[in-house]
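Researcher: I'm comparing several assemblies side by side, and this is the next one on my list. It has 459 residues spread over two chains. Same procedure as the others: predict the full complex and return the structure.
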Amino acid sequence: MAEMEIDVRGQTCPTPLVKCRKAFKTASPGDILIVKGTHQASKKEIPMACEAMGLMVLEIEDKEGGEEWEIKILR
Amino acid sequence: MIYLDNAACTRLDERVLEAMKPYFFDTYAVATSEFGYSMGIESKEGLERAREGIISKLEAGSGEVIFTSGDTESSNTALKGVAWALKEKKGKHIIVSKIEDFSVLNTAKALQKQGFDVTFLDVDAEGFADLEGLRKAITKETVLVSIQHGNQEIGTVQDLKAISEICEEKDVLLHTDATHSFTRLPLSVKELPIDLITMSAHTIHGPRGIGALYIRKDTPINKFMDGGFQEFNLRAGVENIPGAVGFEKAVELVTEEETRQLKAMRDRVIEKSLSEISDVTLNGSREKRLPQNANLTFHYVEGESVTLHMDMRGFAVSTGSACFSRSLEASHVIRGIGGEHERAHGSVRFTFGRYNRMEDADAAIAAMSDIVARLREISPLSRK
């Protein structure tokens, strides 16, 4: 089980989702993906995509006073 | 994956591959004249049988079809070939519609750089060429009009009868790009005075890398590429005989019943999108459109987000949104019909093929309905 970080801070739609899709494909079942971002729409869109792909969102956490967010996903 | 991007490319039909195989492994010689060796003669016979199949579909005359590498080469050959042949004898003006495929549009722009005068003809809100505008735009200097049959994005089917009559009356050659309509819609050069027609195999479950160009007998046209004397000395290069044979087989396999099925799937997507999802606009004509094409704008969402979410649910669709395009510009077709950038950004194209079933259309709309609703909740474009 590996841990993979996807840093999309400063990037806007649809780039965070494009990078997540790539990571979802390369990760192995059981891997943990940690997505770090700033774009608020992506914070909602990424869990939506996880649901469609059958991936489990373990945690969504706001950071830096809400300026940044972090989503932990189980592949 | 439910593939609904058949306008971009189609899955090869196994029967096409079987027809092509002998020309890779058994009869692989270059086509030769009757004075050559037997395998070359058989190759030549295979090529000519394939040509006859395309000719017969168009009701054309012997020798009026050449094979090319696809629609881009066919349209380049048509536009540049005629423009170069007539620039001294007649003039340096050509007319193309604003919503042509890039293979025509960018060829016209290349000719512009070579000193040709190009009129980019307006279309109306459904994508129909302005016929009165066409009549007025033709001058004594006009050497060619190029207006497509069916549009690659919004599916609008032009009134080729009216267009060809205007061109005939004004004594101007007419080229049409039939890449998306050939075999799916009737097209006969016996009935319509069209001088050049672009066709391609990749949109009808044939192989990629093979297309054809119909050239009416005695049409003045210069050779586009220098080299050998193949294809009646109009297209240099070793002939792609397996491709030509595959193209002819692909043409043979298209049936009216199959086209009716595509049309039914198209109509289901259009009707369900308009009735079950709010704020949706149909792009192109409702009545006169390609049987395999549905193109709709889902307002207040971005097309690239929709295509990404559709992909993650197992559907392949395309959009006229800028980020999706290799040119990074919003669809020139949607803008050509008077659409704002927002309409192009939210446009989604569904194009059906032989391997789709009605369940695919239903599943796609169910997925779209959910995706659009959820994206609208979070989209900055959404109505507040």
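Model: For your comparison table: DSSP finds 14 helices and 13 strands in chain B.
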